[in-house]
Amino acid sequence: MKPYLYRMPVGIAGAISRYRDLTTEPVLLKSKDGFPAYGLAGKYDGDYFVPLAENDTADVIKGIYIRPYPTTQTQDFIRQVGTEKNFTGDALKRGYVLVNVGVDSQQVKKGAKVYVRVAGATDKSPLGAILIAEEKTGSGASEKINTVILANAEFTGQGDADGNVEISYKI
Length: 171
Prior knowledge:
Blueprint: E1 16-29, E2 41-45, E3 48-51, E4 63-66, H1 74-81, E5 87-100, E6 113-117, E7 130-131, E8 136-137, E9 144-145, E10 147-155, E11 164-169
Parallel strand pairs: 1-3
Antiparallel strand pairs: 1-5, 2-3, 2-4, 4-5, 5-11, 6-7, 6-10, 8-9, 10-11
C-alpha cells in the first residue's frame, strides 16, 4: 500500500464527487468519435454525445462525460465492440465532478473560472479538457485563444499534485 505523507489524491477524472446534488443522463456515444478520457466536455451531434471539435464555441457544450463504475476506458471498450457499433455512456448535466487539468492543481482557488480546450489539442490535453487558465498560442496578429470559459462552472478549491480537482457545474 502506498503511504500518503501529506494528503490523499483528490480522486479519478470523470468521477462524480458529490452524489447528493447531481443530474446525469444516459447518452448514446459514437464509437468512431470516442472520448479519449473521462471528465471531458462534450456536445451533441444529432442524438449522439460526442467530443468537442476544433474551434467549437462554449454554447455547444452540453455536459461532461463521466465515468460509470465499474468500467473500462472508453478506448478499450471501442476496441472490444468495434468502431461500427455505438454504445451508451453517461453525461453530467449538473453537479460536482472530478477532472484532470494536466498540471499541479494545488494552487487552484475556490470560485476560479473553468476553461475548456477547444483548439490546440495534445495527447495529454485533448479537445474538451478542463484547464485552470486561458491558453493562447502565437503572438501579435497570429495569436489564437485555445480555450473558452465553461458557463456556470467553477473550481471548488485546490486539487492535488497530479492535476485532479473538483468543479461544480450548473449548481
